[in-house]
């Protein structure tokens, strides 16, 4: 009896596994076609200077407009793209698209910056620096207006190589931000060796900042530490006035979150930028 049950469970397990595998393969198959079918869309989320309220930059966040599944979030397909290597051409597409877009917005808002996420695989690819340089040349975006966001875990794989890649990017004039800061396992002692410009405090710490004392003190110390290393700090996922208040009080330089704006498609972002007084977009503040 037990044996039979075990067998049934095994079969159930197997068919569930098969279903999962089939599902994944189907998604990966679609992902392969998605670039040529132009199914990706870039949304832009404003990054705001805390003290002046100026929108200094826009973070590019990719979405997949799947023909039958609807809008697929990056949390679902980026890991798959990463494993299959498809993230490299997808990431280059996102980079080119957002450089083009921000370059075009700069006709109205001259100092507007673009922030683009790099996945581990992209960051570790041999020709990253060359690729970024080429995209900048082709889109005519000034390298000084581009921020590349990498996560701590991306750098941990091979720290020395990561540092040299960061230097290569920095030499182009690009600024590097450390995304999702606090969620990785990087040793703080590496931080001072990284030629980075900014720390992005992960949303998970910001969320409970006004209710959880531990999160509040973690955030306060990250801000203080960043400043002592001459790094700028941006808080992700700012949703309430209370969070904003706490962050301002602690001297957090920049903010991003639904309180200001969710990520927006080009037309909506364009409306928003024009709605805000021109002098309050893209100034160096
Ligand atoms: P991320 O780079 O840390 O981006 C921040 C995420 O938080 C975005 O989710 C954004 O929509 C969301 N967010 C922003 N403000 C708020 C807020 O106030 N509340 C809440 N609850 N969420 C907020 P999204 O767009 O789903 O992207 C998720 C992740 O996918 C990104 O995290 C990034 O790691 C990755 N990703 C997105 N686009 C790209 C891309 O072009 N290339 C690569 N490699 N990764 C990307
Ligand atoms: Mg990011
Ligand atoms: Mg982040
Ligand atoms: Mg995050």
Automatic annotation (TrEMBL):
Domain EAL: residue ranges: 24-277
Protein name per its UniProtKB record: EAL domain-containing protein
Organism of origin: Tumebacillus amylolyticus
């Amino acid at each position: 009896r037990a044996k039979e049950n075990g067998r049934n469970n095994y079969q159930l397990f197997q068919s569930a596994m098969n279903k999962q595998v089939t599902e994944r393969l189907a998604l990966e198959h679609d992902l392969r076609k998605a670039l040529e079918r132009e199914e990706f869309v870039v949304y832009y989320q404003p990054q705001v200077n805390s003290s002046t309220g100026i929108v200094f930059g826009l973070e590019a966040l990719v979405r997949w407009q799947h023909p039958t599944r609807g809008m697929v979030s990056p949390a679902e397909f980026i890991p798959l793209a990463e494993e299959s290597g498809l993230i490299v051409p997808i990431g280059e597409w996102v980079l080119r698209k957002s450089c083009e877009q921000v370059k075009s917005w700069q006709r109205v808002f001259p100092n507007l910056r673009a922030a683009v996420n790099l996945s581990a695989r992209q960051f570790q690819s041999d020709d990253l620096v060359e690729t970024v340089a080429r995209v900048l040349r082709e889109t005519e975006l000034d390298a000084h207006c581009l921020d590349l966001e990498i996560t701590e875990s991306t750098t941990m794989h091979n720290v020395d190589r990561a540092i040299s890649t960061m230097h290569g990017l920095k030499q182009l004039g690009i600024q590097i931000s450390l995304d999702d800061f606090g969620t990785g396992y990087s040793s703080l002692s590496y931080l001072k060796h990284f030629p980075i410009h900014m720390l992005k405090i992960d949303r998970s710490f910001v969320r409970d900042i006004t209710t959880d004392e531990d999160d509040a003190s973690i955030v306060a110390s990250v801000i203080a530490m960043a400043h002592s290393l001459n790094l700028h700090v941006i808080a992700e996922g700012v949703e309430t006035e209370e969070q904003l208040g706490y962050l301002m009080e602690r001297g957090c330089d920049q903010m991003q979150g639904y309180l200001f704006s969710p990520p927006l498609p080009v037309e909506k972002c364009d409306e928003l930028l024009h709605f805000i007084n021109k002098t309050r977009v893209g100034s160096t503040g």
